Amino acid sequence: MASSAESCARLVGALLAATAALLLSGCTAQAVPRKEPAVRRTVVVPPGGTLIDGAGATFPAALYETWFRTYTSNHPARVVAYDPVGSGEGIRRFIGANLADGERVDFGASDAAMRDDEIAAVPAGALLLPVTAGSVALAYHLPDLPAELRLSREAYTGIFLGTITRWNDPRIARTNPGIVLPNLTIATAVRQDSSGTTFAFTKHLDAISDAWRAQYGPSTLVNWPGSAMRATGNEGVAARIRQSIGSIGYVGYEFARKAGLQTARLENRVGRFAAPDTTSVAAALTGVPLPDNLRLYVPDPAGADSYPIVTLTWVLLYRHYDDPRKAEAIRDLFRWCLIDGQQYAEGLGYAPLPASVVRQSMVALDRIR
C-alpha cells in the first residue's frame, strides 16, 4: 500500500495535470460572448439639455468620436456619449432585455445589420440606418519585408482556415515574386468578442470559399482553427499584431492605419490586387442598390478597382421614442452625420456614403417619432 505521502504526491500530480489540460484546451476553445460591463462615464448635461446615449461597434468608433464631439460643440444643449463595446454588445443593449443599471441606450451601432428575429424583439420598433462604410484590412507584422504583401484569395482563406501555416508557403510566394518570405510560423489575430468586423470578414470568406462555407459560414463569433491569438475590439487585435512578429489579423482599415501596421493588397473578383483604402471601398459600393430595409451586404464586390472586403455600418434607432424631444434630437444628430458629417470620413479611413444611400437613409430617418 502506498504511503500517505505518496498518495498526496499522486493527488497533487493529478491536479496539476488536469489544470494544465484545462489551460491548453483554453488556447483553442471557442470564445464565449462576454457581457461587457456597463461603462460608468462622467457626462455633464447642461440644465434643460438632452443626453443621447449609444453603444456598439468598434469599427466606426474613430469616426463616431469625431462626429459626436463636433456635433456637441455646435449643439451644446445636446450631449452625445458613445461606448465602443462591439457590435454584438451594441445590439444586446439596443434590444434592451435584462439590462443592468447604466446599460440602456438611445441608439445602438453594428457592422452586422440586425436579423429579422432581433428586430422583432424590439417593442418600440427598430430602424437600421447606414451611416458610413469602410474596409476590413488584413494587417500583418513582417518588419523585414521589403515590399507590400499581395495575398491571393487562395492564400488568405488558407491562412484563416489553418491550412497555410508558414509565411514562405508557395501559395503566398506565388503572388510575391522577388520577395524572400521568412520561414516563420503564421500567427493569426482574431476577435474574441461578438463582432461586426468578424461578420464582414467571414461573410466575404463564405462568398469565396467552399471550404469556409462548409465549416463555418458567416458569423459574428468564430471558433477559429489552430492557436489563434484572441483580442477584444479592433484596437485589441491591432495591438496583438503590433506586438507579434509573424502575425496577421483582420481589423478595420482605420485601426491598422492608426497603429502603423502594414496591410496586404488582396485579390478581388477580377483577379486584381486592391489596397484597403477609401478609393477602393467607394469603387466597391458604386452602383450597388440599397434595399428598402437598408440592410445591404456586398460580400464580394464586382469592379476592377474594388477592394474585396467592405461593409456598411449601421446605427440602430427606435421607431418610437417616449420623449418627443429625444426623438427630435436623434433625428437632428443623424441628419448632421449623413450630410455634414460625411466630410470627415475619408480623412479617418472611411468611405463617404454614395449620394443614393444618403437619400434613402434620410427618408428612413424622417419616420422616427
Tell me what the structure shows:
The protein folds into two domains: 141 residues, D-Maltodextrin-Binding Protein, domain 2 (3-Layer(aba) Sandwich), CATH 3.40.190.10; 146 residues, 3-Layer(aba) Sandwich (D-Maltodextrin-Binding Protein, domain 2). Strands 1, 2, 3, 4, 6, 7, 8, 9 and 12 form a nine-stranded mixed sheet that branches. It has a three-stranded mixed sheet with strand order 5-10-11. The protein has 13 helices and twelve strands. Helix 12 packs antiparallel against helix 13.
CATH names the topology of the largest domain as: D-Maltodextrin-Binding Protein, domain 2
Q: Indicate the multimeric state.
A: single chain
The helix fraction, in percent, is 25-40%
CATH class of the largest domain: Alpha Beta
Low-confidence spans? 1-40
Characterize the main sheet: 9 strands, mixed
